[in-house]
Input
Amino acid sequence: MKTDSTLICPVCGSALEWNGKECRCENGHSFDPAKEGYINLLLSHQRRSSHPGDDAAMIQARRRFFDSGAFDSLTALILNSSFITQRSSLSLLDCGCGEGHFLGALSEAHDGQFFGVDVSKEAVRCAAKRYKKAKWIVANGMRKLPFADHSLDAILSVLAPRNPEEFARILKPDGALILGVPGVNHLIELRSRLAANAGDFEEKADEAAVKCAPHFTETHRELLSYQQTLNAVQLADLIQMTPIFWCSSPEAKADVQRLSELTVTISFALLTLQRL
Ligand SMILES: C[S@@+](CC[C@H](N)C(=O)[O-])C[C@H]1O[C@@H](n2cnc3c(N)ncnc32)[C@H](O)[C@@H]1O
Ligand SMILES: [Zn+2]
Output
């Protein structure tokens, strides 16, 4: 059986061997891979509900929205980011990977070992069904991650919860944390119609860097901003997949959903941070 020294057992912390068919540690803890090929390493005490994370409807909305091409420029920004293109091969974790769009694209464009973690089983199942070059794992990114100390070259986190201390533990000393956060005026046209301001978006990138500061220093920031005209299906999917709109009133959402199209600003900051 091939040993993967990157993964560790969530029960005892020893190396986890995953050969596709079987996944177990030397102490006999075993985790049956699902038929779609992912493994579930989420222990019952590591979750707050029986179905944590995004649900199936949100995942499908996110999948349709990505497939529509509206975020292709963000995908290109991540694929071409300096840390990733500098390496001929790399081991990378996408923590809070959702339905797998960004990691799937990375695993198809680059050589290396690619791991996607999400606390939502539905998200990981959806990712594993489509993207076969990455390894997909159900786990809680806010608890101890099932990776060995200093085992990864890079961690990607796009619009997902972050645990900088744990990221620092599993990254190699020269490893990088790549954060995708909303930029200034991101979806401002929808936010104003849906009364979802969610704080000052001008500060999201700085706030993310400050939160990581005890363990990381920012070395690079790339900004992306463009206008995109979305049709009614794209608007409905975007509203469903974006957490800041979940509290918007049903009336405001119905008003937006009566539009046949709306041009919105899409704006992201991509931060690269190095371990201190
Ligand atoms: C807004 S979505 C972003 C998904 C993906 N990064 C993308 O950009 O398409 C946030 C994701 O974080 C996941 N998530 C929430 N809490 C998490 C946790 N504690 N550990 C791992 N994933 C989590 C959700 O299930 C969801 O898939
Ligand atoms: Zn074990």
In short: The CA atoms of residues 192 and 215 lie 36 Å apart. The mean pLDDT is 94.
